[in-house]
């Protein structure tokens, strides 16, 4: 579920409505996938992540690193340890700061032998 929610969030762009100075009827409108006030997708993802314990969040960081090729599956325990030692940013902010986090999680699960759980 986290992968699906993260993918839904990461495909979005900030809402930008250009001021072309024309008629409102003819002016371009933002695409449906852009973030708009009241859209709960990112908020829902953050709430899901906030509901996890610290060990689970650390494993998500390690899974992201594994999925993007920073390490091999045989080094999983060391990768989790490194993720636990990481201190530069709050974990949820760190995870959501990576636009491909959902793809990395899916790839990491696949490397660990779980498949992406989306197939």
Describe the structure in your own words.
The structure is a single chain. With 119 residues, the chain is mostly helical. The protein has one domain (2-111). 50% of the residues lie in helices and 0% in strands. It contains six helices and no strands. The radius of gyration is 18 Å and the shape is globular.
Which characteristics define this entry?
globular; DUF3775; 50% helix; 119 residues; mainly alpha; DUF3775 domain-containing protein
Q: Could you write a compact summary of the structure shown?
A:
This protein is mostly helical and 119 residues long.
- What sort of overall outline do the alpha carbons produce when their principal axes are compared? globular
Which H/E pattern describes the elements? HHHHHH
Q: State the separation between the terminal residues, measured CA to CA.
A: 13 Å
- What low-confidence regions span 5 or more consecutive residues with pLDDT below 50? none
Q: Return Rg in Å.
A: 18 Å
Count of folded domains: 1
What's the total number of strands?
0
Mean pLDDT: 82
Q: How many individual helices?
A: 6
Kindly state the percentage of residues in helix.
40-55%
- Oligomeric description of these chains: single chain
Strand content: under 5%
Main sheet makeup: none
Structural class: mainly alpha
């Amino acid at each position: 579920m986290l992968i699906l929610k993260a993918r839904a969030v990461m495909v979005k762009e900030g809402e930008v409505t250009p001021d072309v100075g024309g008629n409102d009827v003819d002016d371009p409108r933002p695409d449906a996938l852009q973030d708009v006030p009241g859209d709960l997708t990112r908020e829902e993802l953050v709430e899901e992540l906030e509901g996890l314990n610290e060990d689970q969040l650390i494993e998500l960081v390690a899974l992201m690193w594994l999925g993007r090729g920073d390490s091999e599956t045989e080094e999983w325990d060391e990768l989790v340890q490194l993720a636990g030692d990481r201190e530069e940013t709050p974990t949820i902010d760190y995870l959501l700061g990576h636009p491909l986090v959902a793809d990395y999680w899916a790839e990491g699960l696949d490397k660990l032998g779980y498949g992406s759980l989306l197939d």
